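Ticket #4471: structure output looks truncated?

Reporter: J.K.
Steps to reproduce: submitted the chain below (222 residues) through the standard prediction queue, then opened the result file.
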Amino acid sequence: MTIRFVCLANSIKEGGRCLAGIQLNNNNEPIIGKNGPIWIRPICKTQHGKVYTHWVSHITLLDIVEIEFTGFAEKTSYQSENVFFKDDDLKVIGRFEKHKLDELCDNHYYLFGNWGKALSIEEAVVLDHSLVLIHVSKFEIIEKNDMDNPDKKKIRLFFYHNETQYDFPVTDPVFLNLYRNNPRILNVVKSLFLCVSIGINFNGLHYKLVAGIIPASLNSNY
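Returned output as attached by the reporter:
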């Protein structure tokens, strides 16, 4: 069976990539369930489900992608979106219109049930999702020292959503490359669509990540 989705994340994950997006019908219209848009995360039978980078390096955010669905992954509480697909078979068949993203944004007050940077294992267990799309207009890049790699800075995004402050690491490789080439890149951007996800268990916590960054409105050319 073929599944189609708009790519909203193609992020760095444990030596590979995490690909995710919202499922579309054959008319490229978002599929909406009782709790909102239907998200999908194609995974491989690898450690943590990572997808090989060379399989998805041709895919950019807002691409419409088709995969051959081969089965549902075992449900791991919050990661309800995971599905298996035919290896190395990810076809880009078009582009999704950016202006349609607003209707797909999450309307919960907090991101994944709290205002913190992470969830405990107990908090993650009660969630039924691990991906959301939001629209923000107040944001700033923060650079922090990387203790493991002193020559490289950790890039985080500080932003407001529903009057709440958040500060998450950025795992969007395309944005990170653009930012490192031009640290003032967001100066021309008035608002952003962010794909926010929950990471794997790390020392008893599931950290929240900015997995995809899409400029929503600009002051000038991006």
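Triage note (M.O.): checked the attachment and the full token line is present. The helical segments are 53-56, 121-125, 173-181.
Status: closed, working as intended.
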